[in-house]
Amino acid sequence: TWRVAIIGAGIAGLAAAIRLRLAGHEVGVFEAAEAPGGKLSELRLGAWRFGLGPSLLTMPHYIDELFELAGENPTDHFRYRRLDVVCRYAWEDGTRLDAYADPLAFANETERVLGVPAERVLAFLARGEEKYRLTGRTFLEKPLHAPSTWLNAEVGRALTRLHRLELTRTLHEVHQRAIGEPHLVQLFDRFATYNGSNPWRAPGLLSMISHFEHGAGAFVPEGGMPAIATTLHALAERLGVHFAFNTPVAEIVTQNGGRRPRASGVRLESGEVQGFDRVVSNMDLFFTHERLLPRAPRPERTLGQEKSTSALIFYWGVDKSFPELDVHNIFFSDDYRREFEALEAGSIDDDPTVYVSISSRYDTGAAPPGGENWFVMINAPFSAGQDWDLLRARLREKVIAKLERMLGETRAAPVALREAIVEEAVFDPTTIEARTLSHLGALYGTSSNSRSAAFMRHPNHSRHVDGLYFCGGSVHPGGGLPLCLLSAKIMVGEMARREP
Ligand code: FAD
């Protein structure tokens, strides 16, 4: 049995705590905030509740797995349902499309609305599933940095079908060739933003994301997204994990003597030092090195990798209801390429794609009767000294005007959104960085804008400090809730493999 310290109670920190405790270790979690969840925590504004970050739940079986491992029935603690319509899409030219989770229903709808033959869409989705089958387990479920990952039949199979993976094409090229129709190409291109990347640069292999959404499906959890963190925290407590909230770690204590320094405990901001056999950081990789290990050697190349995009988020407590909206809604920009060019240039285009997520649609207590909790997000570049006050003010006007215009098209009377907003908070990349300690406000750690970065994130162990491990969105296999849950799983496996 080891004594293991985990720094951070984000989704990956919680999953790691549960797994390590189930493996028989003594686990202490130190969390700077007053509650668990990190990016997955809750924001309250008056009578409205919001999920601070994630709004879309995919692959919930990775959450169920934690309850099952603990010998519990997941549905006793954590319930969710599958959405029939994953997202409602709107374009400036008046086109409206409900994207069904079921591939056949989705393909029939794209044929009806956009005139794209259903077989073409089904073939494209099947191709995404094939990419996932050929590579998913290798890239996402295993430590990329262990020889056994590469020397197996699955990799052999993938190598014989390399051409099927479309490694040399960008995601946009793949969509252009397979689909062609501009609305649908834009719809699929948007999936690059699921890991904060640019479809004109991200590798075509990422088209497997379409399969996650139209096939595997999207889900809504009872109690809203932050309930994922609170139920996992409760599970960890039942198992005997110790939590210390409002307890930032100031330093990872190391001992010299061997070939490399060895993590031997944590020093809290209060000055208290606690000894541990292993230390896991669920904190952003960059800040772990910058703040907690200022004297240790750093993985400079990884730390220098391009960051994923960030976001400008408007949390609006709205006192009206908009029945034409669904849980997830997208209002597309007219020129998607220009939107990404602006992001690459460190700015935001005046006509951004607007995402509106309304969790009070399924979690009715999140807004007062007759009202709705709007989580409105547009893509933003990671923070690099921009004038965010100016960008926030300018984009707020553009977003309200766009939504009023596009919602108005289906109504007889003009839509008065501005007056309906009675509570508001706005987060920009600097707020996101300060609030979630994510370097430069990046939502998903590093970007997947190049073939190497997409699959070569920092490993789940430290190459410079023995006994130090990492899990979470800034390390392998990447950001987003399912990958963070996998990162905890891989990290725990690596700990057992490297130091049996
Ligand atoms: P984090 O959530 O980053 O938590 C790290 C924790 O460490 C925090 O609680 C922090 O307080 C703590 N900490 C940091 N430093 C210290 C310290 N020194 N001492 C103690 N504690 C410390 N994913 C999806 O799957 N679907 C989505 O729809 C989605 N949308 C998103 C929208 C936004 C706006 C954001 C920000 C993210 C979104 N994501 C989404 C990504 C997802 O939220 C993240 O990938 C995931 O939650 C990151 O989890 P993590 O385990 O890496 O830890």
Automatic annotation (TrEMBL):
The keyword Oxidoreductase applies. One of its GO terms (molecular function) is oxidoreductase activity. Coiled coil: none annotated. It is an enzyme of class 1 (oxidoreductase). SUPFAM superfamilies: FAD/NAD(P)-binding domain (SSF51905). It comes from the Bacteria. Pathway: Carotenoid biosynthesis. Its EC number is 1.3.99.27. Keywords: Carotenoid biosynthesis, Oxidoreductase. Residues 11-490 form the Amine oxidase domain. Belongs to the carotenoid/retinoid oxidoreductase family. This is 1-hydroxycarotenoid 3,4-desaturase CrtD. It comes from Kushneria aurantia. The lineage of its organism: Bacteria, Pseudomonadati, Pseudomonadota, Gammaproteobacteria, Oceanospirillales.
